[in-house]
Amino acid sequence: MTARESEVTIDLRDVGSALELQQRLMTSLDFPGWYGKNWNAFWDAITGLVDMPHRLRLVGWAAFEDRLPLDAKRLQECLTQMQDELPSLAAAVSYE
């Protein structure tokens, strides 16, 4: 078991599709190669497959939210739900 990373920054400024977002999340959070690239798989990954960092910075959030509002909403819902249900394992998220 590895130690949790202190901070991970995910740059969302150039993400233009749901698939691109899922690939960026997979790479940035070190999900396994067989990651399903959908919101159910994201939830499973952050709550049981990987250790979330202590802090997660989502850079370019406002523009990303304008481009992909449904994916932005789902991402935020998953991260908030994890904070509510598993606070000791969740990342402190900043939307920048």
Describe this structure in words.
Helices cover 48% and strands 15% of the residues. With 96 residues, the chain is α/β, with parallel strands linked by helices. Helix 2 packs parallel to helix 4 and helix 3 (61-67) packs across helix 4 (69-85).
Following the backbone from N to C, one meets helices and strands in this order, namely EHHEHHE
Q: Which band does the percent of strand residues land in?
A: 5-15%
The beta-strand count equals 3
Bin the helical content: 40-55%
As residue ranges, the low-confidence spans are none
Number of helices: 4
The main sheet comes to: 3 strands, parallel
* CATH architecture grouping: 2-Layer Sandwich
User: In one word, what is the shape?
Assistant: globular
User: Would you tell me which CATH topology applies?
Assistant: Barnase, Chain D
Q: Structural class, from helix and strand content? A: alpha/beta
Task: Using the coordinates above, name the CATH class.
Answer: Alpha Beta
Oligomer: single chain
List keywords for this structure.
single chain; 96 residues; alpha/beta; Barnase, Chain D; three-stranded parallel β-sheet; 4 helices
SSE order and pairing:
Blueprint: E1 7-11, H1 18-28, H2 39-49, E2 55-59, H3 61-67, H4 69-85, E3 92-95
Parallel strand pairs: 1-2, 2-3
Helix pairs in contact: 2-4, 3-4
